[in-house]
Amino acid sequence: xxxxxxxxxxxxxxxxxxxxxxxxxxxxxxxxxxxxxxxxxxxxxxxxxxxxxxxxxxxxxxxxxxxxxxxxxxxxxxxxxxxxxxxxxxxxxxxxxxxxxxxxxxxxxxxxxxxxxxxxxxxxxxxxxxxxxxxxxxxxxxxxxxxxxxxxxxxxxxxxxx
Length: 162
Description:
By secondary structure, the chain is an all-alpha fold. Helix content is 77%, strand content 0%. The two termini are 26 Å apart.
């Protein structure tokens, strides 16, 4: 078997191995968006009130469409990882270098945001106002996993040694 064919099989295996976790993270985010929409449009009483879902940074009429676009994008990523090939799976040296760190920085920013939230609003500990923070951590984990896929390829290590 040629080296290129072997690299392609390793790439496919690497992607498929990560796919179930990516799908689970996407499902969590989709449930969060659905829950917030149920509260916003139907006022369901068995879910937390809107103030718990929503930081107010982006008005909800703009937030919901952006969340739907994120779900579609993450769905495309998950599809490629499930198939083991596609644009999001094709190894990219730049992605392997910066995407994992971007995800870690995103996750760390949410940890800091949570600490600040709990410091400024001690009466709201532990879960009040944390739904957006928790689901930003879900998105950060998604970014980290995709980045690790690109970081795990031998070509990156060869390029780093040069």
